[in-house]
Amino acid sequence: MTTSPLFYQAGPEMPEVSHGRGVFLWDTNGKEYLDGCSGAISCNLGHGRQDIRDAMLAQLDRVAFTYRTQFENAPALALARQLVGMTDDALEKVFFVSSGSEAVESALKLARQYFVASGESQRRRFVSLRPSYHGSTLGALGMTGYQPLEAPFSDITMSSLKVSGPDFYRQRDADRETHVRRVLEETRNQIKAVGDETIIAVVLEPVGGASTGARLVDKAYLEGIRRLCDEIGCLLIFDEVLCGVGRTGTWFAYQQWGVTPDLLVTAKGLGAGYYPVGAMLCREEIVEAVMASGGFQHGHTYAGNPLACATGLAAIEAIRDEHLLDNVDARGRQLQRGLETLQCRYPWVGDVRGLGLLWGVELVMDPTEKTPFPAQANLFARVTALAKEEGLLIYPRRPLDGLAGDHFLVTPPFTISESEVVLLLERLERTFARLDREVVSPLLE
Ligand code: PMP
C-alpha cells in the first residue's frame, strides 16, 4: 500500500514528529516548532517532562489497569480529592472518563437521571449556545452549535435548544450591560416558549474555546444564567474541557466570575497530554438522588484507571508545586500585550480576546464592519500553514456560520518562559507579515 492507512490527517505534506522538550517539538527533518497551542490545548506542561514520566512508570510498575467495579485505586481517590479541593468543595463528587466528549455525555445523562429519579421525567431538553463546541459523540454533538459539524447528523441527534450567548466583539447594543440584559432576555423567552418545566440543564463554556476562539462571557451574564436555572429549577453544566484545570489562571474558569455550576466537565489538560483522562464533577445531592433510584446507568471501560489517574495527579501536583497558575497569569498578560501590539499593526486583526493562557485572535476583512474574509480564502488554514513554516503551532478555526470570522487560538503550555513568549510573538509577527503580503493584500486589491 503506497498511501497512508490513516484517513484523518491533513495531507501528505504533514511532517512526522520526532520528539518534544518543554514548549518545543521537532520533526524528523530536524525542524523546530514552538508549540503555541499545547497540541490541542492539552499539553499544558509542555513535552518530555521527567516527573510525569516517572509518575507514570511508577504506576505501570504497580498496575496499569484495574476495573472500577473490582478495585478501589489510590490514584483515582487522590485525583478525585484534588479535583474536589480545586472547586473549594463546591462540587463534591467525581466521575472519571477518558475524553471531553465522554465527560459531556456523562453530565447529560446524570442530569437527566437526576430528574427521572426526582419524578420530573417531563424534563427532556437541554439548552446550549450557538456557536459552541461540546464534543463529537452524538449527545455532545447535539449540544454543539456549529452548523457544519451538526449538518450530517441533525436528523438523528438529540438536539438542544440553541440560544445566543454574549458577543462583546460584534454586539450592537448601547453597552455591555444592555447587551447582556438583552441576550439573557432572549434566552428567557426562548426557554419559556418551549416550557420551563421541560428543561434539564443549560450547558455552556465559561470561556469559549475551539468553537468561538476564546469568546468571553462576564459576571453579569453568568449570574443571570445561574438565576434563570434556579428560577426554572433546571441544572447548570459548565463545559470546562478546554478552559479548565488552570488554563485561565484559576483552577476552573468559572472561579474568575464566582458563579458555580451544578455539574462541571473537564478533560484535555487534565492528563497534560501524557495520558487521556477526563472528569465530571457534580454536587453530592444529584448523585445521592440518582444512587437512591438504582444507580447511574452509565460508564466507560477505561474510566478512572490507575495509570490515567496517576498521570492526572502528577500533572496537577506539578501545576501546584511549581506555582504555574502565577505563570499563566504573568505570561498571559505578556502574551496579551504582544497580541494587541500586532493588532495595532495589522488592521485585519479584528479582535484579540481571552484570559490567562487562552487567547483567541479573529481575522476580519473590514475592521469597522467586522466583515469576515470570504470562506473560500481559507484564511484560517493559510495563517496556520504560514505559522508552521515559521516554526510556530497555532490552533485554527474556520469562520462560524456568519457569527465569527476566521480565528485561531494561542494557548502555549503553562511552563512557557518570558523569553519563549517573546519568541512566540516574533514568529507570529513573521507569520502576519507574510500573511499580509502573500494573502491579505492580494485579496483586498
Ligand atoms: N468540550 C469542549 C469545550 C472542547 O473544547 C472539546 C474538545 N475540543 C470537547 C468538549 C470534546 O473533547 P474530546 O475531543 O476530548 O472528546
Automatic annotation (TrEMBL):
Transmembrane segments: none annotated. Its cofactor is pyridoxal 5'-phosphate. Pfam families: Aminotran_3. GO terms for molecular function: pyridoxal phosphate binding; transaminase activity. It comes from the Bacteria. Keywords: Aminotransferase, Pyridoxal phosphate, Transferase. Gene3D superfamilies: Aspartate Aminotransferase, domain 1, Type I PLP-dependent aspartate aminotransferase-like (Major domain). PANTHER family: AMINOTRANSFERASE, AMINOTRANSFERASE CLASS-III. Belongs to the class-III pyridoxal-phosphate-dependent aminotransferase family. This is Adenosylmethionine-8-amino-7-oxononanoate aminotransferase.
